[in-house]
Design goal:
7 strands; 38% helix; five-stranded antiparallel β-sheet; Beta-Lactamase
């Protein structure tokens, strides 16, 4: 697949290259990152750095969304943030973008972190390699959600895609987390 250039509005209007090349990592390893309550990275493990192609200095102090792939539905992140801000954990399939434009899929488990007084101090994300069968279900769903978001545009697209995401889970008689874990 040839490289594709997209406007990257998250970083000084620089050009974002997408190679279409997938990276993988062993299913025995876990990518770990920690953020503050605003999503700014405070810790990343070596596997995170190895697969993303970034250095620790490039990641720490930066928003976690620096690795957000533009083909990821915004509604998944909306659901993720709504859930963790309510001090609950969430599981979600996420496609991230590497520094060189490659991408990698993960099954993310994001949990809130609390101090000794029970105050929310940040978030911890552990990410495993997804099963191929799960990606066969997730990839077309996410393409559909991105299409809804783009067709409707703005907040309306985000809300409509969010409803479509929940409807997919409800068709199986499940809540979103149950749906994710059932794949």
């Amino acid at each position: 697949m040839s490289a594709v250039e997209l406007e990257d509005t998250t970083r000084d209007s620089s050009r974002l290259i997408l190679t279409g090349q997938a990276r993988t990592f062993p299913d025995t390893q876990i990518i770990v990152s920690k953020t503050d309550t605003r999503g700014v990275m405070t810790y990343v493990n070596q596997l995170f750095l190895d697969i993303s192609g970034y250095t620790e200095n490039e990641m720490l102090g930066r928003p976690h969304n620096v690795i957000r792939h533009p083909h990821m539905p915004r509604c998944v992140f909306k659901l993720l943030w709504e859930t963790i801000k309510q001090k609950q954990e969430i599981f979600a399939y996420v496609m991230n973008r590497c520094k060189n434009g490659d991408h990698y899929w993960v099954l993310a488990h994001v949990t809130p972190t609390f101090d000794e007084q029970g105050q929310l101090t940040g978030y911890h994300s552990s990410r495993r390699a997804p099963k191929a069968t799960a990606l066969q279900a997730v990839e077309p769903l996410y393409r559909q959600l991105v299409q809804i978001e783009r067709q409707q545009g703005g907040q309306a697209g985000l809300e409509k895609a969010t409803e479509a995401l929940h409807e997919t889970a409800r068709k199986g008689g499940m809540a979103y987390d149950q749906f994710v874990l059932s794949l």
